[in-house]
Automatic annotation (TrEMBL):
Species in which this protein is naturally found: Arabidopsis thaliana
Membrane-spanning segments: none
Protein name as catalogued: Paired amphipathic helix (PAH2) superfamily protein
Subcellular location: Nucleus
Chief site of localization: nucleus
Length: 125
């Protein structure tokens, strides 16, 4: 299997303003990752609603998300994209390599984009 150069989600959006589509794409990845455990996805949505409604501080959100996505470094690092400047989830080398059997966030994001392109081509034909 040929691997493309890894470009992080954060790098992909670093040079542009984040959009609602970026957030929805990330939500879709979380939902797909936890398709067999809807409770985690629902908990993530609750955390985000509380943050958006200013009922949770950034530090608390980071702590909850880090626990919720434990063992999923691609989601944790992808979530950094949406954190305010000065905040970042960091992972140890062990945390980064502990889940190597799963696709990396970047690969999943690339896959979602390919599906979108195929879908757009299919509907325009």
């Amino acid at each position: 299997m040929k691997h493309l150069p890894v470009v992080s989600f954060k790098t992909m959006v670093a040079n542009k303003k984040l959009t609602t589509t970026d957030a929805l794409d990330f939500l879709h990845l979380v939902k797909t990752k936890y398709q067999d455990n809807r409770e985690i996805y629902d908990s993530f949505l609750t955390i985000m609603k509380d943050f958006r409604g200013q009922r949770a501080k950034t530090c608390d959100v980071i702590s909850k998300v880090k626990e919720l996505f434990k063992g999923q470094p691609e989601l944790l690092l992808g979530f950094n994209t949406f954190l305010p400047t000065g905040f970042e989830i960091t992972l140890s080398d062990d945390e980064l390599t502990s889940n190597s059997k799963f696709a990396h966030f970047d690969e999943a994001y690339e896959f979602v984009n390919k599906v979108k392109v195929v879908g757009q081509n299919h509907t325009s034909n």
